[in-house]
Amino acid sequence: MGDVVLGTASWTDKTLLESGWYPSSVRTAADRLAYYASQFPLVEVDSTYYSPPAERTVELWRDRTPARFTFDVKAFRLLTHHPTSPDALYKDLRERIEAGDKNLYLRDLDSRIVEEVWDRFLGALAPLHEAGKLGGVLMQFPPWFPISRANKDYIAECKRRTYPVRIYVEFRNRTWMSEKNQAETLAFLADLDVPYVCVDMPQGYPSSIPPVLAVTAEVAVARFHGHSEKWDSRSIYERFGYLYSEDELRDWAPKLRWLAEQAQELHVVMNNCYQDYAQRNAGQLKQLVSLADGQPDRPPSGIHQPHPGGCQFGASTGRKADPGPAKGSVPLADLDVSQPEVGTPKHEPSPSRRNQIGADLAGRNPGQWLGDQ
Fold it and tell me: Which residue ranges form the domains of the chain, and what is each CATH number?
């Protein structure tokens, strides 16, 4: 089984600091990160979504954590097509574009400005990458980013730009993981050797993505957003203020074990960041996963294949598996499984990934629907 690296999406949230999770002796920024790193081997940095980090800040993250600690870093919002306040841009770039007060989108900017933003954002992460502490960059795309050839091209572009740093892709537009497009999406990501981010989140909203388990690269990623009834609130604490019950986490433990069986490494992030909810649940889940009775040879109970045509690892293209008959399934001929002409990436999916993961998944559909939760 691959390593399970588990943590939360914050160590500095104000409600966490007020919750009492940190001992009273932990008072400084350096102490907080050191204490967090003594509890969990992974943290996701979400502040980088709102504004790019300074390289000196990243150096401090590196210096305040042990050798085997891992940072996953969320991409700056401009780079994932989210509206961006001009104040979040680098000052000299802001002056060059005369942005005014309106939010900016990537499409609004000259290509030279876009190049600068990419170069500076990635350059600031260099201290973590050079120290072997940068797990990857989370590209969380917005609800207005549907499945399309142009958007597939952009994901491929992101992969090329960040190389050799890995990206993880999380969707918030349902078209990517609809029954019609799920196989196409997973095959596309597998062909790029880009991890699909499995999510647990509220269902029934425009941005809802079903809880699909899938491994599309040697690293697998799962993020837990909770099940708040106020998912459409503008308040992040109302959206993510959800404390998982132990029964909910116990149900997830064998599923995470199954993901870990298919990958070299599994990153699990609790993003229910309100007070100490994420830290408490991460601690519980860490214990439950270590005790779970894994089933490496088959998906855990409660998971079933919705239809044929999922990704087949081990093949030279990482494309669709042999459909075969399945009761109530969607015929492969009815699926849109075309691939975009995205050009040649800077590096192909590694042979080691295909050999190690492909041996377990050849002929199996890694896109698995979980039961309603």
Answer: 3-40+141-370 (3.20.20.410)
